Amino acid sequence: MRADAQRFFLGAPRAAKGFVKINVYISKQQLELLDDAGKVMHRYAVSSSAKGVGELSGSHCTPRGKHIIRAKIGAGLPDNTVFVSRRPTGEIYTPELGEKSPGRDWMLTRILWLSGLEKGFNRLGDCDTMRRYIYIHGTPDSVPLGIPGSHGCIRMRNADLIELFDIVPAGTAVEIFE
Prior knowledge:
Blueprint: H1 3-11, E1 19-25, E2 30-35, E3 40-47, E4 65-73, E5 81-84, E6 87-92, H2 95-100, E7 107-116, E8 135-139, E9 154-157, H3 158-167, E10 173-177
Parallel strand pairs: 1-10, 8-9
Antiparallel strand pairs: 1-2, 2-3, 3-9, 4-7, 4-10, 5-6, 5-7, 7-8
């Protein structure tokens, strides 16, 4: 681990109940929540980018490497709250609303905004995860998980995302593996 990332992880706020890290495995389409001993406490199905992995701005790929949760957005809002540009629109997703906008990349329920920690790889310049607006966010129940399909973000079931959101604080380490 790079020294600057290690210092950051050591100084980052610790997650509730001993949880300290999130690992995302692109090959398995899974997200794991680990405790401070490295034991998997929760495992969730996810969907990463349909275009694969990559760090460049405009690629619509899921970035790899070490990240943190920079911001948590949507605490206390209803399940299926619709977000645009990290702001709730006032809409609640329904299948009927989904039919009105086929092909829309729905961001629902909560947002965990990621920020890269590795300069030149997923931080700063044309590969900055945060400036690419890469999130862990909710998705309609009708959207398949366990297979790539997002536009770069990590999609989760809304109930799973609420559970994760309520456990982890901003500053939690997130590592995305190919």
